[in-house]
Amino acid sequence: DTEVTQTPKHLVMGMTNKKSLKCEQHMGHRAMYWYKQKAKKPPELMFVYSYEKLSINESVPSRFSPECPNSSLLNLHLHALQPEDSALYLCASSQEAGRWIYGYTFGSGTRLTVV
Amino acid sequence: GQQVMQIPQYQHVQEGEDFTTYCNSSTTLSNIQWYKQRPGGHPVFLIQLVKSGEVKKQKRLTFQFGEAKKNSSLHITATQTTDVGTYFCANAGGTSYGKLTFGQGTILTVHP
Predict the structure, then answer these.
(1) Distance between CA A107 and CA A30 in Å, rounded?
(2) A85 by DSSP, 3-state: which?
(3) d(Cα A56, Cα A35) in Å, to the nearest integer?
(4) How confident is the model at residue A100 (pLDDT cuts 50, 70, 90)?
(5) Cβ distance B56 to B63 under 8 Å?
(6) How close, in Å, is residue A15 to chain B by CA atoms?
(7) How many Å is the Cα radius of gyration of chain B?
(8) Which residues of chain B make contact with A33, given a CB cutoff of 8 A?
């Protein structure tokens, strides 16, 4: 299995809702990432997990809460989002944080709309 | 990763023409990765360059890393409509955390 699977593919949520994005990989990668991408812009790093521990938080607002239950799963919990948080949320993985000879493998993303 | 500047932002070509996108950094880079993102898709890893002056080819795609390791280019020969998408260069940081920082990307349109 050489894929990163993200669910759901599309999500519409109100500003008072709580929702979660899920990401799964079975490549044995020990680093997993959340990126946010706006239209016609590059992906921007949000969080890095290395060996299931949060190693980087790029000053992301607390309404975004990441979780790594095990080495294959990564969640992003969303609460009280703003319309400007609407974007494509990409999960990615790599062999290890700091080892990227085979690049990063990205999931197909969750397209989030906050209304 | 370190900041990389990428040009041009947009490129429109006729099918069969060549295409090149460039990435530049003010500091020496330990590596450059290239990704392609199709419209409505997600970034897909193409290649990584780590050595000074390195040149790698994948069919019609040629990737170069500058001698000073401050610039890189992606050249596509005889573009096809399947080449449409956004091409990103990216730098994976020199720390143990593997932070990947993307250039602004070049959006390629190929007219048949």
Answers:
(1) 16
(2) helix
(3) 12
(4) low
(5) yes
(6) 25
(7) 13
(8) 100
pLDDT given for residue A1 in this prediction = 67
Q: Sort residue A46 into left (φ over 0), alpha (ψ -120 to 50) or beta.
A: alpha
H/E element, B62: strand B61-65
Query: Which residues are CB-neighbours of B96 under 8 A, at least 6 positions away?
Result: A50, A97, A98
Cα dihedral B34, B38, B42, B48 in deg (nearest 10): -10
**Tokens 């330990």, residue located:** B30
Does the beta carbon of A51 lie under 8 angstroms from any beta carbon of chain B?
no
Which DSSP string do the residues of A44-66 spell out, in sequence order? EEEEEEETTEEEEE-S--TTEEE
Tell me: pLDDT of B1 over 90.
no
Helix (H/G/I), strand (E/B), else coil: B78: coil
